[in-house]
C-alpha cells in the first residue's frame, strides 16, 4: 500500500535552527532517504518552495484565476512530502516516526487510494 507523508513547517521553525544544526539535520534527512530507498519503501522525497513561491489556481466559468500563496491562511505550510510503499499502515507510521523532523513538526500520513496511469 502506498502512503503520502506531508511535512509542515514555517519560517520561524526553520530560523530557530542554529547554522551548525541545519547541516546535521540535512544529513540526517539524507540518511533517512537512503535507508528507506534502499529498503524499497521510499518511492520519492520532495522539498517544496515556501509559501511566497506557491500559487493557487481557480477556474470559474472557464476562466482561470491565479493568485499568490497557498489557499489556506495558516502559519504553517506544506514544506515537503514523501511517498512510501509499505506492507501495512503500521509499518508506514513506523517509518514516518523515524523521519528526523517528526520531532519538530507535524507529519501527516495519508493512504494513497488511487494511482492514475500516465501512459498514453
Report on this structure.
The chain has helices at 11-15, 19-38, 89-97; strands spanning 2-9, 42-47, 55-60, 63-68, 77-85, 107-111. The chain is 28% helix and 33% strand. The chain is flat. It has a single domain, classed as 2-Layer Sandwich (Alpha-Beta Plaits), CATH 3.30.70.1060. The strands form two sheets. Strands 2-5-1-6 form a four-stranded antiparallel β-sheet. A two-stranded antiparallel sheet has the order 3-4. With 120 residues, it is α+β, with helices and mostly antiparallel strands.
Helix and strand composition category: alpha+beta
Number of helices: 3
What's the SSE pattern? EHHEEEEHE
Distance from first to last alpha carbon: 24 Å
**Low-confidence sequence ranges:** none
Largest sheet, order of strands side by side? 2-5-1-6
What share of the residues lie within helices? Answer: 25-40%
Which sheet architecture does the biggest sheet show? 4 strands, antiparallel
CATH fold-level topology? Alpha-Beta Plaits
Mean pLDDT comes to 89
- Rounded radius of gyration (Å): 17 Å
Amino acid at each position: 500500500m502506498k502512503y503520502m507523508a506531508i511535512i509542515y513547517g514555517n519560517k520561524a521553525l526553520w530560523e530557530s535552527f542554529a547554522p551548525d544544526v541545519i547541516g546535521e539535520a540535512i544529513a540526517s534527512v539524507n540518511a533517512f532517504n537512503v535507508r528507506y530507498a534502499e529498503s524499497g519503501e521510499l518511492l520519492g522525497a520532495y522539498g517544496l518552495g515556501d509559501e511566497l513561491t506557491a500559487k493557487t489556481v481557480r477556474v470559474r466559468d472557464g476562466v482561470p484565476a491565479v493568485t499568490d500563496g497557498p489557499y489556506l491562511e495558516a502559519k504553517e505550510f506544506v514544506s515537503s512530502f514523501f511517498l512510501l510503499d509499505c506492507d501495512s499502515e503500521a509499518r508506514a507510521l513506523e517509518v514516518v516516526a523515524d523521519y528526523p523532523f517528526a520531532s519538530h513538526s507535524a507529519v501527516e500520513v495519508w493512504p494513497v487510494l488511487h494511482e492514475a496511469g500516465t501512459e498514453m
